[in-house]
Amino acid sequence: MSAQDTLTLQDKIAYGFGQVCENIKNYAFSYFVLFYYSQLLGLSASLTGLALFIGMLMDAVTDPLAGSISDRWQSRWGRRHPFMYASIIPMGITFFLVFAPPADLGQMGLFVWLTVFTILSRLFMTLFQIPYAAMSAELTDHYTERTSISQFRFGIGVTGIFAVFGLGFLVFFAGEKGQFDADAYPAFGASLVLVMVVTMFWAARGTHHLIPRLRASGVAEQGTTLMDLLRDTLSVLRNASFRWFFMGVLILYIMVGVDSALFLYVGSYIWEFERDQFFLLTITAAFGFLIGSVLTKWLHQRFDKKPIILIAISWWAFWQVLPIMLYLAGWLPPAGSTALLAVLVSMRLVQYIGTMQAIVTAPSMIADVADEHELNTGRRQEGIFFGGLTFSGKATSGLGKFVAGIAIDIIAFPKGADILPSDVPPDKLFWLAMTYGPIVCGFAVVAVWAASKYAINKARHDQILAELKTRKEVTGPEANLAGLQLAKGDPPAAPPKPAPKPAE
User: Fold this and answer.
1) Closest CA to 125 of 62, 69, 189, 176
2) Around Cβ 149, how many Cβ atoms within 10 Å?
3) Phi, psi (deg, nearest 5) at residue 274
4) What is the pLDDT of residue 474?
5) Count H helices, E strands: the chain?
6) Within a domain: residue 176?
7) Which residues make Cβ contacts (< 8 Å) with residue 134, sequence separation at least 6?
8) In angstroms, rounded to a whole number, what is the distance separating the alpha carbons of residues 363 and 367?
9) d(CA 126, CA 391)
């Protein structure tokens, strides 16, 4: 492995801190926003879910477009860093306002407020996250070193999970009302913004010196109209591995979104946990991620990426449905007990050790797809591919929340900060459990089937790199022209014939 293929430890750490902000946004939105707006502020759960879903629909447009714009950008700071720097402050302001709606807005006022600032905070996060994620494919070509970079990214990103649940349950919800204290949420949001702003700047500044080694796109000389950007976005869908993999990951993240949206409902009314028990259960996922991130590189040295991610998806679904089935069968310890907490913590730890394999592996697989796309088209368009992957992740706080909100309203679950578990009829608890477990996890079969269509393994990737290396031996514009002609199925242009020698 050459020096160009590797990063220093300091570089990997700096890059890894860029994931903290995304994790904070995802976990704060996923675990608290639906509960805060619907259960505490009184907004309809369906409207709350709809507001989050509308934000996700905007991501469906802005994520790939942000990737395309970033791919084409030219500046003295390269293609990625200008967007990373510019997004930090606007993202912080709009994210805070999600958790600080004015009083007495009413149903439609709350709905509009949540919708507007969900869209804006997602937009500014997109302008940071898509260029940041795309950079990982440019830092190295090496098959397993890409996994190492992802390992640092998501391992350090776990800090964001600690921040959300630590600041939440140990600081701002530490009072008698716990997570039912609506007045604590604005300060909670402000504290998260501080952590996000610091880590975003750390990642941008800490990787700034790497700009010279990042690649040019091969498309900068072309137009940048809206049609050009849309054409770029559609072009990546021609890659079969990306299409199927995107579908599988999207379905997985929708399942995760329903799980996280209903987590406080299930924990409060089925498990009947107190604040300290909530913290231990939620933070267990972070420890599972840490342990899982350590195991990932070892697994990738022994197994290919596709079987790892297929097993990881199945693993998440199995451990998600198991405790619910035991609850429905009456085989779990009593609600609110230390024994129940111990059982659920153990299961959740094992679940997230395996889940981390999918989280780390997915970006590494997308980076390999970007190489195949360059071979087929002559273009480096990591931004669009990672825009698609990031969009699928955002389904956790978009479509997943929409589904969860509709489910809460269909169940007609009682609302109010003073609702006790004993106030909830057994049939409501039954359908809450069924939604949280078996119904949602049934879609894991579809996710595994779709992801199984991914066709790039290590041998294929080595072949791709070898062909790219051969092509790049042609220097100057002829190299890019040859690549584009091959992508269209045309033979490469013949080199110009030498001028005839002058007659003697």
Assistant:
1) 62
2) 25
3) -90, 175
4) 62
5) 20, 0
6) yes
7) 67, 70, 71, 80, 382, 383, 385, 386, 387
8) 6
9) 9
CA dist., res. 268 & res. 328, Å (int): 17
The structure tokens listed for 449 are: 């089937």
In a domain, 315, yes or no: yes
Question: Are 326 and 332 within 8 A, CB to CB?
Answer: yes
pLDDT confidence of residue 22: 87
CA separation for the pair 359, 313 (Å, rounded)? 10
Domain enclosing residue 422, as ranges = 11-208+229-456
Encoding tokens for residue 440? 């949602």
Q: Of 173-177, 217-221, 295-299, 303-307, which range is least confident?
A: 217-221
Structural domain contains residue 115: yes
Q: Is the dihedral of CA 248, 142, 296, 129 positive or negative?
A: negative
Backbone angles phi, psi at 385, to 5 degrees: -60, -45
Which residue's entry shows tokens 């904070």? 24
pLDDT of residue 383: 67
Number of domains within the chain: 1
Sign for the pseudo-dihedral over CA of 246, 310, 159, 204: negative
CA dihedral 169, 172, 176, 180 (to 10 degrees): -80
Helix, strand, coil distribution of the chain in percent, nearest 5: 80, 0, 20
Sheet strands (E) in 293-395: none
Region of 489 on the Ramachandran plot (φ > 0 left; ψ -120 to 50 alpha; else beta): left
Beta-carbon-side half-sphere exposure of residue 123 (alpha carbons within 13 Å) = 12
Q: What residues contact residue 267 under an 8 Å CB cut-off, 6+ apart?
A: 273, 278, 281
Q: Which residue has the tokens 């080595």?
A: 462
Residue 451: partners with Cβ closer than 8 Å, 6 or more residues away: 244, 245, 248, 249, 306, 309, 310, 313
Residue 138 lies in a domain: yes
pTM as predicted = 0.68
Return the half-sphere exposure (C-beta side, CA atoms, 13 A cut-off) of residue 175. Answer: 9
Q: What is the CATH number of the domain that holds 69?
A: 1.20.1250.20
Which string of DSSP letters, residue by residue, matches 180-222?
G-GGGHHHHHHHHHHHHHHHHHHHHHHTGGGGGGSPP-S-TTS
pLDDT digits (tens, 9 = 90+) for 334-388: 999 999 999 999 999 999 898 888 877 887 788 788 888 888 877 767 666 776 6
